[in-house]
Specification:
alpha+beta, 3-stranded mixed β-sheet
């Protein structure tokens, strides 16, 4: 069965500076534009941590993300 876009993409980004952690939650059906926008927001969240590149941790919760084919 091929999924059809029906659920609007949703996401949230939170930061835990004490753990150098960025948490990204994804839901719905992502378009290329959604992915590009979310990636830019995630990178901004990483920069906001103020740690050197590669020092942060990223947790992605994609349990509510529709299958992307």
């Amino acid at each position: 069965m091929i999924p059809t876009p029906g659920k609007q993409a949703r996401h949230s980004i939170s930061v835990d500076p004490t753990r150098s952690l960025v948490i990204l939650r994804l839901a719905g059906f992502m378009t290329l534009e959604d992915v590009q926008r979310i990636a830019a927001e995630e990178q901004a969240a990483v920069r906001a941590l103020g740690v050197p590149a590669g020092v942060h941790r990223l947790l992605v919760d994609a349990r509510a993300l529709d299958a992307q084919l």
